[in-house]
Amino acid sequence: MSLVPQVLKSLKTLPPFPLVAQRALLLLNKSEVSIQELVDIVKFDPAITANVLRISNSAFFGLRREIHSLHQALLLLGTQELLKVIIASGATRLFCRATPGYFLDRLGLWRHSVSVALMADLLARELDHPERATAFTAGLLHDIGKVVLSLYVDQKFTEIMEVVDGRGLSFQAAEKEVLGIDHAQLGGEMARLWDFPDRLRLVIKLHHLDKPEAFADDMVLLVYLADLLVLMFGQDLGTDGLAYDGYPEVLRLFHLRERDLEKILLNFGSAWQEAQVFFGLIGGDDGLQCAHRG
C-alpha cells in the first residue's frame, strides 16, 4: 500500500526553513549582492550572527585579523562566501538530527550534505562555472527529502532492500516502489512549501537524473556528479549509496578527463579535512553549532 498520503500529511507539521537562510537563498539569483543587503537579513538572528562571526574567525578561512562585526566579515570574506556561511548556518537546524533510514550516525546526513556541497563547489571552480554559491547551496540541500522520509524508510527498510537485491534496482527506485515516493520527489515538495528559488527546487527534485528533463540543466548535472564523486571517494555512503545509478555520459558532457577527476578528488580530501570543524562535524567551538546537539 502506498504511503504517499501519510508522508505528505507529515509535511503539515514541517517546521519553517530558517527565515534568514531563506532570504539568503533569494539573493543567489542576483548578479550582485551588496554588503548592506546581507547585514540586513542576518542582524536580527543572534544565532546565525554568532555563527557567522565564529566561523569567520576560524582556521577554515585563515584570516590574519580578528573579526568583530558582520561588516568586517563581509568586507574580508566577500558576499559569495558569506552567503554560503549564512545558508549553511540555517541548514544546521534542519540537518543536525537522526535519519535512521539512511544513516546510523546522527550527523550522517549533515556530513554527506556538506561533502556534496564542497564537491559541487570544487567542480564549479574546475569548470569555471559562474554560480559557485548556487552550486554549493544546491549540493548542501539536495537531500532535504531524507529528513522527513527517513522514518518511513526505516520502517520499510527490509522491503526496500529486498527490491534492491531481488531486482537490481537503485535504492532510490526501490524506495519509490515500496513507499510510492522517493526522497528527491519529497524534497522537491518541501522546497516548494518553503518557497525556494525555482532552480534550487529543480536540482533537489531531479538530482538522481531519473527524468529526461534533468539532462537539460547544468546545475542538476553538476550536483548529480558531485554526489557521485563523493560516493566514489567513499565519504559517508549511507544505505542508499550502496545501490546508486551511474550515468558516465555526465563526465563527457562536462568534458572531464581522468586527470581532472583525480585533481578534484585530491582537492576534496584537503577541503574536507579543513571543513570538519567549520561545519561542526568534529569537536571544537570554532565551527557551526548544530541546533540539535546531544
TrEMBL record:
- Organism superkingdom: Bacteria
- Gene3D superfamilies for this protein: Hypothetical protein af1432
One family name in Pfam for this protein: HDOD
Q: Which InterPro entries match?
A: HD/PDEase_dom (IPR003607), HD_domain (IPR006674), HDIG_dom (IPR006675), HDOD (IPR013976), RNase_Y/CdgJ (IPR052340)
Which part of the chain is the HD domain? 109-232
Pinpoint the HDOD domain residues. 14-210
Record protein name field:
HDOD domain-containing protein
Q: Which organism is it from?
A: Desulfobacca acetoxidans
Q: Recall the taxonomic lineage recorded for the source organism.
A: Bacteria, Pseudomonadati, Thermodesulfobacteriota, Desulfobaccia, Desulfobaccales
